[in-house]
Design goal:
Layout: E1 2-8, H1 16-27, E2 32-38, H2 40-49, H3 55-63, H4 72-78, H5 84-95, H6 100-105, E3 109-116, E4 122-126, H7 133-140, E5 150-152, E6 155-159, H8 168-173, E7 179-182, H9 196-205, H10 210-217, H11 219-235, E8 239-242, H12 257-282, H13 291-301
Parallel strand pairs: 1-2, 1-7, 2-3, 7-8
Antiparallel strand pairs: 3-4, 3-6, 5-6
Helix pairs in contact: 1-12
Length: 306
Amino acid sequence: MTEGALVLEGGSLRGLFTAGVLDVFMERGLVFSYVNGVSAGTMNALSYISSQPGRTMKVDLDYVHDKRFLSFRNMVKKREIFSFEFLFGEVSQTLVPFDYQAFAASPQKFEAVATRCKTGKPEYFAKGKCSDIFAAVQASSSIPVLSRMISVDGKKYLDGGVSMPIAYQRAFDQGYDKVVVVLTRHKGFRKKPADRWTEKAYRRYFKPLPEFLDALEQIPERYNRMQEEMDELEAAGKLFIIRPAHPVAVSRFERDKMKLQKLYGEGRQMAEELLPSLCSYLGIPVPEVIPEVVERENRTISGGIG
């Protein structure tokens, strides 16, 4: 196990870039001792910690057109654009089984970041300590307005990205001096303020939750400030960042499988290209590919993309 921290940004289906990176890590046996994730980053973390390469890619690509997984019909019926009931139910139990036993047994520390609706502040839920880590993952991944609030220990939460889009400082605060961040946007990307229709929807929907509304309205400023800080930390050699080389032409709710598969491939390619410098940063030799892991990955994705 590598004594270092792995921090995963969200981005809904843009998380397929991250899935490509993590599949390369798993094929090489690169296991970080601490992982945290926000939104789609938590979903990627689940398959990484359970050591199931290929699983995230297969779920996203096989079911992106399945209305049970992603549809505005879900909004009407369940008040969530992504159906967690389907994802953590039939998908994880039967269609593309999640290895709950391996996840629980993993010595890796894992935290999911979610935003508490009452305070607008980030909270961190740790595997093995949180009463329901999968509810915390759902909370972290629940997009404001497009998802209902998720209860964890009697408190309401939504998307971790509202208050803490990239939890690299959390990794430093946990005592790690080697921190690897996987982003889903290219270098230099900056968020623009929300359009007036989105702002209007936020103010109407979250009027009873002024602190959460404040956090929503501060997203661009907070995100852009963090990007500046990460660039400085990267230049100083204190942070190692893996991100797309070019602007990502994939939306959060992308339905084009070719675009999604290409983004996954770009994540794999970037991880392979940066592996020598990454290992140098971590102070470890470049690990060889583990044939058994690749074979398991091939079994996972066998049958092709539906």
